[in-house]
Amino acid sequence: MQLTVQPPAVGPEAILGRQAARESAARTYARSLPIVPVRARGMTVEGADGRRYLDCLSGAGALALGHNHPVVLQAIRQVLDSGAPLHILDLATPVKDEFTTELFASLPPEFARDARIQFCGPAGTDAVEAALKLVRTATGRSGLLAFTGAYHGMTAGALAAGGDTAARAGLGGTVQQPVRLPFPFDYRCPFGVGGEEGARISARWAASLLADPQGGVEQPAGMIVEPVQGEGGVIPAPDAWLREMRRITGVHGIPLIVDEVQTGVGRTGAFWAVQHSGVIPDVMVVSKAVGGSLPLAAIVYRSELDVWAPGAHAGTFRGNQLAMAAGTATLRFVRKERLAERAAVLGERMLARLRALRCLLPAMGDVRGRGLMLGVELVDPRADADRLGARPAAPVLAAAVREEALRRGLIVELGGRHDSVVRLLPPLTMTDEQSEAVLERFGEAVHAASAAHREPLAESGDRKPAGARPSQEPSENAAGGAW
Ligand code: PMP
Question: How far is ligand 1, taken at its centre, from the CA of residue 333, in Å?
């Protein structure tokens, strides 16, 4: 008997239906963005239904130059046409040599001068694991200092360093927990003071904990920090605070790991976000945009730390030549076209416009960010504000804004403590006209969602955000009535 396989229906609805039936319950973006992209160029994504979207997610920040940028495509084609191997473990190749040269040229010179690079498995999270392993090997210590609200990836060590307790529930008790320090957060200051004073107290807490012989904290192997927390809700670390973290870790001989996975390659208005503060880390974690839209991840670190054994962080896929070529082209284009400066200017302008919009739309509780890494925290405008002016997070409303935005042809994602921060991560190549269109569609989306939506007060708990994990809901008024 001959088995005939029917060709599947190819319409977007059929494809989405099969995805829902066949893919894991853990799928993420696919749930909130039910579209079937078939073409993409720059900031525009076209769905199978012919609809076009402005993409403010940019592959979770991986697309510094947007989709299919000509210099990236050309670099990829060149490798393909050259007959070079595509997969070559971690052997030396001209393509890799060029990538490393361009990457080192982009780093702060004091750092690059004495740096080593380790290519990792092609995800940010693997590079984070490598960074943790490196500092543990180099110091002979095991503890870690990490921050509230942090996100470093989804493998065991990276999850432990992150602040999302629900996300690591599946790990059981297998992973050593870091010592958790408070990340400065103006809008929801853990010390209830905000501003410079909040950041100063946060730094003082870290300093006193490490200096206190009875503070209960073993000398750790390292401190890991994001210069701007991305998944945690777009929270920039104040420059003075980051410098203080550098000073404190220096005093105690603790390697400082800066996770630039999301902030790197011009995103925040400097080529690397540490350049805002002038901090020179001991280890820098890079991924996302360094691969020019293809998978690539690495750590760059001071040579003094390079004491691990051959094969200490091995992996099959550490030599993706297409990603290295695409990455070289991207790094070079960002440098030559001064796209970090462009991101700074455009980001400032968008922040100002969003803050103006906030005066008209009270559901926009806070507007923050740096460069083209922007966040708008949605709040319940009917609830009381705390003494710093923050209202309870509004995750249901935020999800509705995302949906209304998509309806208007704008792709955005959520993040933040209660999934109530709309994050804007447009490509650095966004035009003025595109940024205007983003602002217009976003404003309309917030307006429509606020009008249609009556967020339950956090205390009432009578409606739950669709698909949210229980822990994502504000079980307690996030504004902290307890003060
Ligand atoms: N660190 C940071 C700061 C990130 O934003 C991310 C991803 N969002 C990661 C690490 C993990 O990268 P990946 O998803 O490629 O594992």
Answer: 23
Using alpha carbons, select from 148, 146, 147, 160 the residue that is nearest to residue 220. 146
| C-alpha 23 to ligand 1 mean position (Å) | 22
Cα of 160 vs centre of ligand 1, distance in Å, is: 13
Intra-chain end-to-end CA distance of the chain, in Å: 75
Residues 6+ apart with CB under 8 A from 436: none
pLDDT digits (tens, 9 = 90+) for 65-110: 999 999 999 999 999 999 999 999 999 999 999 999 999 999 999 9
Buried b or exposed e, range 150-172, using 16+ CB within 10 angstroms: bbbbbbbbbbbbbbbeeebeeee
Domain 12-62+340-452 is found in CATH 3.20.20.20: no
- Report which ligand 1 atom has the smallest distance to the Cα of 123: 15
CB-based contact 294:62 (threshold 8 Å): no
Q: Given ligand 1 and candidates 151, 183, 257, 267, which is best to mutate, with the most ligand atoms within 8 Å of its CB?
A: 151
* Alpha carbon distance 98, 118 (integer Å): 15
What one-letter code names the amino acid at 154?
M
What is the CATH number assigned to the segment(s) 71-336?
A: 3.40.640.10
Task: Identify whether the C-beta of residue 224 lies closer than 8 Å to the C-beta of residue 150.
Answer: yes
Q: What is the pLDDT of residues 109-145, one digit of tens each?
A: 999 999 999 999 999 999 999 999 999 999 999 999 9
Ligand 1 proximity of 262 Cβ (cutoff 6 Å)? yes
The helix or strand, by DSSP H or E, that contains position 345, with its residue range, turns out to be helix 339-360
Q: Is the CB–ligand 1 distance for residue 441 below 6 Å?
A: no
Q: Among 261, 268, 274, 294, which is best to mutate for testing ligand 1, by the most ligand atoms less than 8 A from CB? A: 261
User: Where, residue-wise, is CATH 3.90.1150.10 in the chain?
Assistant: 12-62+340-452
